[in-house]
Write a structure and sequence with these properties.
The complex is a heterodimer of chains A (about 350) and B (about 325).
Chain A: E1 3-17, E2 23-38, E3 42-46, H1 53-60, E4 68-73, E5 76-77, H2 83-90, E6 93-96, H3 110-120, H4 126-139, H5 156-168, E7 174-178, H6 186-202, E8 206-211, H7 214-220, E9 223-228, E10 231-237, H8 238-243, H9 248-256, H10 292-296, E11 307-308, H11 329-341
Parallel strand pairs in A: 3-8, 3-9, 6-7, 7-8
Antiparallel strand pairs in A: 1-2, 1-4, 4-5, 9-10, 10-11
Chain B: E1 6-17, E2 20-32, E3 37-41, H1 48-56, E4 63-71, E5 74-75, H2 81-87, E6 92-95, H3 99-102, H4 109-121, H5 125-138, H6 144-147, H7 157-169, E7 175-179, H8 187-204, E8 207-212, H9 215-221, E9 224-229, E10 232-238, H10 239-244, H11 249-257, E11 306-309, E12 312-314
Parallel strand pairs in B: 3-8, 3-9, 6-7, 7-8
Antiparallel strand pairs in B: 1-2, 1-4, 4-5, 9-10, 10-12, 11-12
Helix pairs in contact in B: 4-5, 4-7, 5-7, 7-8
The chains are: A alpha/beta (about 350), B alpha/beta (about 325).
Chain lengths: ~350, ~325
């Protein structure tokens, strides 16, 4: 597989100013991240608030300019592109945001919102616009008749479907989803996760999922990169990183997943400020295994396929076993099969949530 | 069985709007017992938060409530606003999702805990502040004496929620209602806060009602569970029983939709359609339009909450659900 997207040593700091406007430091949002995403792959970037995952997602599309490092898309350095060439490139890269209420213009009908990128990139003749919009709506599980309606007439899940249709309009190769289902109720979230998976498979999309929810990640991602205070601490195949995590931070994240029912004690304290991140390994202030070396020396992300940035990755005790409380048994699986196999019952609107 | 701390029965609630009544809760019943956690779980709009506001007496003017809610045997719904205010803080307390909006930005953490103590325990200013520092230590705020002198904006989200818990528990209430207390927090901090609530409940014997949308949280922290759907109780059981043998199709669907469950790489067993519009709820069982097990009779009347196994109740005509699988129950 060739890399569609390649990041090398990307750094992005945001200046912090004091009350007089003087520079008083910087938020180390992304601090030396290298990553590659293969064509057709789903990569999840996970971590807690302030770890830099959203900034990294925006850097990938050059919605945020990195301070240093390179971002290559399909072999082309995005920083070297002229504004007009970048605009053309953007056709291939789209983003879906968390808040389906904030990401649609309330003064545009659904058809206008979806047709906007078609017009911007002059992708279809005007005469074919309506049929393309209808096709996109069907694709995301909405009725073509929704085209003339306004965003406020839709539920959160339906709006997120509209935002997905808009992102798909330009036939992108890469989509970044920044917490795309975090604002949705569980049952609606499951519908949108299923939809995203279908679209990724059917349209052979490359997808970068930015998420704090390991449950969602587990269902969607092929590979996972775990971030802590601007750096990647572990990266590898999803089933390995989530099933047999090697970095102490990843272990704590997996153990803290609700429903995991591990007996691992939760991490102490809060994430330190990204304005003054700890020296050496940034996790050492909360790590049960930290030694002197961790305070002084920054561990490199090492390993082929499954990489870990921990001085003691080879010598840590095995993680506590997890008991899946929600997975519950054959009876539940057979009952749930009825939900999976069933055609949607008619509801008031006839649309998906 | 001991007398429950809180006994709610047949609680119904609606809001008057433009001369019409919008029904939110339709006859819900549950009990919270000392030293135990009752989880009320459901999706947005199911009425789980509004039920707790009704118990606390924090509803807006246009609400109409009927039914029964007794705290240690005292009728909450019949008492005057003054009587209820005296109970709030002293006998029952509540914490909310967003601690930043619940704390007063103009007072230090210590002052706010001390205020709760002074209101209900007649302590003088110095004694109250000392007791406040002790409370902050109890909710495991490191360096409590220094933190007590800081303002909410100087504290992290997890720290603020600890301060809220300290305020809520300052007067040793019999009942603590926690409404999505960790939804705004990071997952490692969430684990700390929920673990803290578990410990405090064991130490003080407080009855905890944990309102949440997250079945994983329920599995880890609840003794008993009430699953709500569209203003009614769908299922009620001990937590272990609910996860081992869910007996309402909505619970089965919710469990299938939780991304933490299920087989990786398989489609989630999502529930199709949307939650009904409470202005025009479907007749009969409100889940029927989305239920793969629904039969014609489900639309005929609200199915009663029926005991399908000892201590395990389901409001489904088709429960026990083993019948759906063609095996003996």
């Amino acid at each position: 597989m060739t890399a569609l997207l390649e990041l090398r040593d990307v750094v992005k700091h945001f200046p912090v100013r004091d009350a007089l406007g003087r520079r008083a430091g910087a938020v180390h949002a992304v601090d030396g991240v290298s990553l590659s995403v293969a064509e057709g792959e789903v990569l999840a970037i996970v971590g807690e608030s302030g770890c830099g995952k959203s900034t990294l997602g925006r850097v990938m599309l050059r919605l945020i300019e990195p301070d240093s490092g390179s971002v290559r898309f399909a072999g082309e350095d995005l920083a070297s592109l002229s504004p007009s060439a970048l605009r053309t490139r953007r056709r291939d890269m789209q983003i879906i945001f968390q808040d389906p209420f904030g990401s649609l213009d309330p003064r545009m009908t659904v058809a206008q919102a979806i047709a906007e990128p078609l017009r911007l990139h002059r992708l279809v003749p005007r005469a074919e616009e309506a049929s393309r919009v209808a096709e996109l709506l069907r694709r995301v599980g909405l009725r073509p008749e929704s085209a003339g309606r306004w965003p406020h007439e839709f539920s959160g899940g339906q709006r997120q479907r509209i935002a997905i249709a808009r992102a798909l309009a330009s036939n992108p190769r890469l989509i970044i989803g920044d917490e795309p289902v975090s604002a949705l109720d569980v049952s609606v979230q499951a519908q949108v996760i299923n939809l995203l998976r279908d679209l990724i498979r059917d349209l052979r999309l490359t997808f970068v999922l930015v998420s704090h929810d390991l449950g969602v990640v587990r269902h969607v991602a092929d590979r996972v990169a775990v971030m802590y205070l601007g750096r990647i601490v572990e990266e590898g195949p999803a089933e390995e990183v989530l099933g047999a995590p090697r970095h102490p931070y990843t272990r704590a994240l997996v153990a803290a997943m609700p429903g995991a029912q591990t007996k691992t004690p939760p991490l102490d304290g809060d994430v330190p400020s990204p304005i003054a991140p700890p020296s050496g390994c940034r996790f050492h202030t909360r790590c049960a295994f930290a030694a002197e070396r961790c305070r002084t020396e920054t561990p490199r992300l090492e390993g082929v396929g499954h990489a870990v940035a921990c001085h003691f990755a080879e010598s840590l005790p095995p993680p506590a076993e997890r008991i899946a409380a929600l997975g519950g048994g054959e009876r539940l699986a057979r009952l749930q099969a009825f939900f999976r196999g069933q055609a949607p019952s008619p509801t008031g609107m006839g649309d998906h949530a | 069985m001991s007398t429950p701390v809180l006994d709610v029965s047949g609680l119904s609630l609606g809001f008057r709007q433009d001369g019409r009544m919008l029904g939110i809760l339709d006859g819900i019943s549950f009990r919270a017992e000392a030293g135990k956690t009752l989880a009320i779980v459901g999706e947005s709009g199911c009425g789980k938060s509004v039920a707790s506001l009704a118990i606390m007496g924090l509803l807006p003017e246009n609400a109409e409530v009927s039914g029964n809610a007794r705290l240690m045997g005292r009728d909450l719904l019949g008492m005057s606003a003054e009587e209820r205010r005296a109970l709030r803080g002293a006998e029952m307390a509540m914490i909310f999702q967003e601690p930043m909006t619940s704390l007063n930005p103009a007072f230090t953490a210590g002052e706010q805990v001390a205020e709760a103590l002074r209101l209900h325990q007649r302590l003088d200013r110095d004694a109250a502040f000392k007791a406040a520092i002790a409370m902050l230590e109890k909710v495991r705020i490191p360096d409590a004496a220094r933190r007590a002198r800081q303002y909410p904006h100087q504290l992290s989200g997890g720290m603020r929620q600890r301060v809220m818990i300290a305020i809520a528990l300052a007067c040793r209430p019999k009942l603590l209602i926690a409404d999505e207390p960790t939804t705004a927090l990071d997952v490692t901090v969430q684990a700390q806060i929920l673990g803290l609530l578990d410990d405090l409940k064991r130490e003080t014997g407080t009855a905890v009602i944990l309102i949440t949308h997250d079945l994983g949280v329920v599995a880890d922290h609840a003794d008993d569970v009430v699953v709500m759907y569209a203003g009614r109780v769908a299922e009620q059981a001990r937590a272990a029983d609910l996860f081992a043998r869910p007996e309402h199709p909505y619970t089965v669907g919710l469990l299938g939709a939780a991304p933490a469950a299920g087989v990786r790489g398989e489609r989630l067993a999502s529930i199709e359609g949307t939650v009904p519009d409470l202005r025009a709820p479907p007749p009969g069982c409100r889940f029927a339009p989305r239920c793969p097990f629904a039969i014609a009779r489900c639309a005929e009347g609200a199915p009663p909450l029926t005991e399908v196994a000892p201590g395990h109740f389901s409001a489904c005509l088709r429960a026990p659900l083993d019948g759906m699988l063609g095996v003996a129950a």
